Amino acid sequence: MSRTATEPQAGYALTLLSEDEEMFRATVREFAEGELRPRVEEMDEHGKLDPALIKQCFDLGLMGIETPEEYGGVGASFFTAIIAVEELSRVDASVGVFVDVQNTLVNNALLRWANQEQKKKYLQQLASQRVGAYALSEAGSGSDAFALATRAVGRDDHYVINGRKLWITNGNEAEVFVVFANANPEAGYRGITAFVVEKGFEGFAVGKKENKLGIRASSTTEIILDGCRVPKENVLGEVGKGYKVSIETLNEGRIGIGAQMIGLARGAFEAALSYTSERKQFGKSINEFQAVQFQLAELAVELEAARLLVYNAARLKDTGRPFVKEAAMAKLYSSRAAEKIASKAIELYGGYGFVKDYPVEKFWRDSKIGAIYEGTSNMQLQTIAKLIIENRQPKVQ
Ligand SMILES: Cc1cc2nc3c(=O)[nH]c(=O)nc-3n(C[C@H](O)[C@H](O)[C@H](O)COP(=O)(O)OP(=O)(O)OC[C@H]3O[C@@H](n4cnc5c(N)ncnc54)[C@H](O)[C@@H]3O)c2cc1C
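Above are the sequence and the flavin-adenine dinucleotide SMILES. Below is the predicted complex in structure-token form.
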């Protein structure tokens, strides 16, 4: 798939996909329906991804969507990665975020900041066999990400990193970690540096795995860096520029979370649409009652609005235009829409919506994370407010 073939054209509807994009969507949907759906319930119950699915994600090219073909990737657009996350999340948001973190955070950070040798080594591995993770958050630094306490001290040809990362998605499956540590605390956030750390490096360990409300099959773990020895050649970007790596990567990553949320919302909506046509009360399908029809119509509008925001942010990013405000809006709105749609789907199922034999309670549990990771909803509002106030036009007299 060539990058030009997926390039959006101004003036066309956002939801009109190119032929390549349509083909890609169909392939991911077939995989999600055929391979993923039968495993969703068990993976959620046991809180673990099926390793067979991980291999299939690599075989299908889902782990290196934007990675150029010379490094073994698909060489497609960011929008294509968004389609993958949406389609997977329509069936299971855990696999959605597994693929999302690999593409929109780890590969993205390397594509943007890695030097030639790092790209050749790590992008190739990440496209073909190794799972990646992005380790910024700590127990004491979440929204205030630059307050991180992990320290890196330079020695001869390597750095020694000490600290603990918390909440790291893909922590159990990953072998390549983008880790943020402060190499010069006196300089404040200008000491933050990004490193590529391999699971096998001395002093690296994966800690406790969280037992979560939602996206249970996605592993969320602590990462322990106890005198972790990282070669100097594994600094990603420049020393002291890690804050830029983290902000800019997360700006893009947020669109991926938006895609996870619209996928999940669509899964819940389609389930509600189908259930309300089958369920009979008072001698007819419940979707024949206008009150139910109006609720479905409201949900359809929410889903469409969220989808347009996510697609627009992704298309803007692909065309190299400013997209930070639009990405924040997309994440904020789509996480709210997903929660609302999944919650209403439970009500439309009645008692059956409240039990695990039906899919909608899981959609709602999974939706809650959208307002938390990659910047809470308050942080998105802060970004939007800052940008609209900074960019306000002078009033015409
Ligand atoms: C399942 C899961 C997966 C995750 N995956 C990753 C990962 O892969 N990599 C990674 O680095 N991190 C990851 N995270 C961490 C996630 O990004 C943080 O949880 C998130 O940034 C919020 O930080 P916090 O939990 O410390 O909450 P806090 O920052 O303590 O926020 C608590 C509340 O206070 C509000 N608040 C805080 N500051 C302000 C302010 N200035 N103004 C207004 N309101 C404010 C917040 O909006 C929130 O409502 C993950 C978290 C979870 C739960």
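The first strand starts at residue 131 and ends at 135.
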